[in-house]
Amino acid sequence: MYILEACKACGVTRKAAAYYEEQGLISPRVLENGYRDYSMQDVRRLRRIAALRSLGLTIRDIRDVLTGDEKQSLRKLAAQGNLNLETLTEKQKLLQTLAATGDWQSMQAQAEQLDRRQSILRRMLDKFPGLFGQYALAHFAPYLQEPVTTREQQDAFDTVVDFLDNVDMSIPPALLSEVEETMLTISQEDIHNVSQSLRQAAENPEKYLAENKEAMEAYLSIRQTPAYQATPGYRLMMEMKKLNQQNGYNDVFLPAMRKLSPAYEAYYQKLLLANEALLKAYPEANGQQE
After folding, report:
1. For a FRET experiment, which of 43, 63, 162, 272 has its CA 20 to 30 Å from that of 154?
2. How far is Cα 132 from Cα 127, in angstroms, rounded to an integer?
């Protein structure tokens, strides 16, 4: 069909369709007379572009969805939207507080910390592949609320940002897609619950191990089987573990996070104690922790 018919079918203007073509999002066949001939595939793509634009996505976001792994891209954009919404809500609260108190100094300090927090979390979501990015947000976000007041903290923040800007977390696309296919039912709430469960284990490892004894023993037993070690989830964990050893995650990123956030340093020490409790209860778990 011609451009006017295609635009009518998709609910977009001719100017918008021309812009999407200019941006390389659609490529209708150009006839000898200069008219655009839209195939059914072109119309389907144009309709998707219009739908994504109605959700407020940028051209870059839409290109990522159309040219990459669609499901992974959409999940990532949804997580980014949640982060943006959370940040906007916090900024609204700061405006309301400023209106009530007139304390510009306090507002500016809190706004700067909010920007630093979003800067780190946005980079995590962008760099860590698939669900790992969303888990990183749930895991680290609670410990990025504190103000940066010392030179050591500022240096640590710069190190974290530099690491995230330059780290290579490339996972074989086929493996990542395979994992994502098996985890489509995992929600943001599920990811939050996993992170919360880890914090509970760190707070009281003996109680956690006692309450989850059967599940822990079953998991450690299953981990030894070739069937489990052949699963996409296990292979992805091993790939991530190898990457973290190679790219400085353990030697650069985590030490910087501990210096940046006293709250995270306290949590990290609790995790070490929890790990000791786990190995004491289950020596066979040595070398198996992700």
Report:
1. 272
2. 9
Each residue of 171-207: pLDDT tens digit?
A: 887 787 777 777 667 777 888 888 888 898 899 999 9
153 & 12 share domain: no
Residue type, 167: V
pLDDT band at 240 (very low <50, low <70, confident <90, very high): confident
Q: What mean pLDDT is predicted for residues 212-219?
A: 87
pTM: 0.82
Together in a domain, 41 and 85: no
Distance CA 263, CA 144 (A): 8
Same domain, 183 and 268: yes
38 in Cβ contact with 3 (< 8 Å): yes
List, in sequence order, every residue forming a beta bridge with 36; answer none if it has no partner. Answer: 30
- 223 burial (CB, 10 Å; 0-12 / 13-18 / 19+) is middle
Whether 145 and 112 map to the same domain: the answer is yes
Contacts of 10 (CB under 8 A, 6+ apart): 17, 43, 46, 47, 50
